[in-house]
Write a structure and sequence with these properties.
ATP hydrolysis activity; ABC-type ferric iron transporter activity; 27% helix; ATP-binding; membrane; OB fold (Dihydrolipoamide Acetyltransferase, E2P); Rossmann fold; ABC transporter ATP-binding protein; 2 domains; alpha+beta
Length: 420
């Protein structure tokens, strides 16, 4: 069963469409990263799932029950062990929230909006949002004392009925889960490092055993090294707990490494979802290709499954274009390119000339011109022009000394291309 289902969700703020017809589902126990640039609607999507805002269109289902639905939206999920079947306070809250919104709209289905505190959702804000006047222990216990209807596993009710001893056991369990030293439980947030604060924020969200965790760019304020270390610890904790998780981020590397699936969001639209490797290897369009990691885009002409380019004839492994022999664009990833010194290079490699060498820490970026502009025999073909094409190639530092401005070189391409 899906732990989360978002169907046709739209949201307008200040007359601007922030989200438009967003649809996806997330199986129980899996992690999804939604990646997009600033202003793409990432945080708004989380706020709608959490119940901080109401949807303008569509519906959201958590654990089989409809928690958000616009007036007139299909309410079939209400009969699937959802709000009506579950009854209780959550059903009353949802009915009350929808009564006014559904009135006067042609007798369609009423709007539904289950309050945030009754959704069983854990939320980690970008800055952690820890209570500065409470110790770490008190921050972690807050969910146990204040979220009596959160969660679906029964662990929370057990902790409450067991009193202080059970609550303390739960606090220590989640502290250990996020690799937080028990000696830090008595400290205040300002006495912790940034990475420790984020672990506390995650632990607080996990304490009441929610049905789903929402992470709103929780690592963005951390330094690069600490960000990677904290992210790995958080992923390990989430994997161990088995809780369904949605992360939103603008960091492509973070999105690719975080979970079981990834979604690309731009202009309020979810343009592609799937396994990270599949989305990376075959982006839906040229925008997705450039946004999700480094990309080399070449002008080509495709004829019978072969892309003719400044780098020679390249096999097409995915064709996302309109079909037929025509000029189009091909995607290569940097690891498909190997730059070699001209002398003794493979005869099938394309001719090139070095334009610039830039050191980039662990490697060098060598900018070359390949194709007709690189000299005789460069093999620009139908995809190039008289000037050739400029390409950036990553070269190991140990090999970078072979290349300097004006030096002839060769480019070897491995694997096929995606064309658009």
């Amino acid at each position: 069963m899906s732990a989360l289902s978002v169907s046709g969700v739209s949201k307008t703020l200040g007359g601007i469409a922030v989200l438009a017809d967003v649809t996806f589902s997330l199986p129980s126990g899996t992690r999804m990263a939604v990646v997009g640039a600033s202003g793409s609607g990432k945080s708004t999507l989380l706020r709608l799932i959490a119940g901080f805002d109401r949807v303008d269109a569509g519906r959201i289902v958590l654990g089989g029950r409809v928690v958000s639905a616009a007036a007139g939206a299909s309410a079939s999920g209400l009969a699937e062990g959802g709000i009506d079947a579950g009854g209780g306070a959550a059903a009353a809250d949802a009915a009350g929230a929808g009564a006014g919104a559904g009135a006067g709209r042609g007798g369609g289905a009423r709007a539904v909006s289950v309050p945030a505190h009754r959704r069983g959702v854990g939320y980690v804000a970008q800055d952690g949002a820890l209570f500065p006047h409470l110790t770490v222990r008190q921050n972690l216990r807050f969910g146990l004392s204040g979220g009596r209807s959160a969660g679906h596993s029964g662990g929370l009710s057990g902790a409450l009925s067991g009193g202080r001893a059970a609550a303390e056991r739960r606090v220590r369990e989640v502290a250990e889960l996020v690799a937080l030293d028990s000696g830090l439980l008595g400290r205040f947030p300002h006495e912790l490092s940034g990475g420790q604060q984020q672990r506390v924020a995650l632990a607080r969200a996990l304490t009441p055993e929610p049905g789903i965790i929402l992470l709103d760019e929780p690592f963005s304020a951390l330094d690069t090294g600490l960000r990677a270390q904290t992210r790995e610890a958080v992923i390990a904790a989430l994997e161990h707990s088995g809780v369904t998780t949605v992360l939103v981020t603008h960091d492509q590397e973070e999105a690719l490494s975080f979970g079981h699936s990834i979604g690309l969001l731009t202009g309020g639209r979810l343009v592609q979802t799937g396994e990270p490797s599949a989305v990376f290897d075959s982006p839906v369009d040229a925008w997705a290709a450039e946004f999700l990691g480094a990309a080399v885009l070449l002008p080509v002409e495709v004829v019978r499954g072969v892309a003719h380019s400044a780098l020679g004839e390249l096999p097409v492994r995915h064709d996302r274009s309109i079909g037929g022999a025509r000029p189009t664009t091909a995607l290569l990833r940097p690891d498909q390119l190997r730059l070699m010194a001209d002398a003794g290079a493979n005869a099938s490699a394309a001719n090139a000339v070095v334009l610039e060498v830039t050191l980039r820490g662990s490697h060098a970026r060598v900018t070359v011109r390949a194709g007709a502009g690189a000299g005789a025999g460069a093999g620009a073909g139908a995809g190039g022009d008289a000037r050739g094409v400029e390409i950036d190639v990553r070269v190991p530092l140990a090999e970078a000394g072979q290349f300097a401005r004006g030096v002839p070189a060769r480019i070897q391409v491995t694997g096929g291309v995606v064309v658009y």
